[in-house]
Amino acid sequence: MDPRALLIESFHAAVGAADAQKILPPHLPQPPQGKTLVVGAGKAAAAMALAVEQHWPASSPLAGLAITRYQHGLLTNRIQVIEAGHPVPDESGEKAAQEILRRAKGLSANDLLLALVSGGGSSLLSLPVEGISMDELKATTKELLRCGAPIQDMNTVRKHISSIQGGRLAAACRARVLALIISDVTGDDPTHIGSGPCAPDPSTYQDAQDIIARYGVKAPASVVAHLQRGMRGEIAETPKPGDKLFQRVENRVIATAQGSLQAAAAYFRARGITPVLLGDSVTGEASEVAKVYAALARQIRGHGEPFKPPVALISGGECTVTVRGNGRGGRCSEFLLSLALELAGMGDAYALACDTDGIDGSEDNAGAVLSPDSLARAAKAGVSPKKLLANNDGYSFFAALDDLVVTGPTRTNVNDYRAILVL
Are residues 342 and 238 in the same domain? Predict the structure, then answer.
């Protein structure tokens, strides 16, 4: 099998390890004495809802509402699926979140709230607090996306201007709560996944304000005023660890980046290529991370250290891109374009970087593949990789080479997948 095909198939193995249809059914609980309300938010929400429907007893009451990204919906019968805006929230998500909160408040102690949480839930399950409009929430989200803040910091702010996130969904009902979670954040802490609608929140209004100041976020006046009121103790904090309400709540992570990396490693191992897992929680500027990985690949290729070829360097996590240009592309194409410049056409080195949700940033591709001849082909086509990288335009570079990886929505999300193949 050629290197490009090997890399793409390894990506499919990684995504398959987080397929809701495979991983969710074993975690379903016994139906309660009362009714079961299913609520979901995230890019995997529709697939998770369908998996619940297909494995829930037909005689047991089941209803609910799941919010997913546009073009990520599936046909369901008992659980309604609503499509909404991501990464910037919109009124469709707001309306659906209002309905979820209303229905959760109507549950009794004999009922079950089954929450399906996955990456993307932070923007999809958007219900701003009183005094902050949806337009102001959108503006804040856009600022957070542009500033290069890690997702944990972004979600700290989101939780403190939300009526439903940061444990507030669980606090709103009297029922037992089971949250089944597909993790898209480093560390797999439920408080950061979808901004933790059912998880205790250790962060504070002060933390949120500090993040806005640290990254120079130009938040609307209403957002700043709300955070300041919280800092003064005029409005309640999010539910904290140790709160007795969480005695009836379980947050269970059922899929992680590490599980997907292990699936890819098994794929390479079966084909005689040594897999090396470099971590499931790699963060930092995508272009800078690429420089470190390029140095490692050169050491392997030139000296057989610290690993002898053929080897596959595999990693996950979520890098960031501080947007300075106006090009197209996400963190995966940015990583690969920087890697291309650092490797400078080094022979026998191939790479792939893709987001497991099938969407790199806000584009129509999951990511791209890199070959030893990528720079040479770009030069022949009159494409300048340095100029495109400076403009955050990795998409255009790989589109010109016909090296984009396009999968369409995968309806799951365990963050980025990167593999560098040194032969």
Answer: no
Q: Which two tokens stand for residue 394?
A: 């990795």
**Same structural domain, 219 and 245:** yes
Report the alpha-carbon distance of residue 145 to residue 87 in Å, rounded: 8
Q: With 80 as the cut, is the pLDDT of residue 1 above it?
A: no
Task: Using the 3D structure, point to which of 229, 255, 281 is the last residue of a domain.
Answer: 255
At 114-162, the pLDDT tens digits run 999 999 999 999 999 999 999 999 999 999 988 878 889 999 999 999 9
Q: Can you tell me the distance from the alpha carbon of 89 to that of 262, in angstroms, rounded to the nearest whole number?
A: 33
In a domain, 6, yes or no: no
Burial class (CB in 10 A: 0-12, 13-18, 19+), 347: exposed
The residues, any chain, with a CB within 8 Å of residue 340's CB and separated by 6 or more, are 370, 374, 375, 385, 397
- Closest to 19 in 3D by CA, of 53, 42, 44, 50: 44
Number of domains in the chain: 2
Distance CA 127, CA 100 (A): 10
Buried b / exposed e along 376-404 (16+ C-beta atoms within 10 A)? eebeeeebebeebbebbbbbbbbbebebb
How much is the pLDDT for 323? 81
Residue 61: Cβ-neighbour burial (10 angstroms; 0-12, 13-18, 19+): middle
Q: Is 187 helix (H, G, I), strand (E, B) or coil?
A: coil
Does residue 3 fall inside a structural domain? no
Residues 198, 278, single domain; the answer is: no
Over the stretch 203-216, which tens digit does the pLDDT of each residue have?
999 999 999 999 99
Domain of residue 404 covers 258-422
Are 356 and 260 within 8 A, CB to CB?
yes
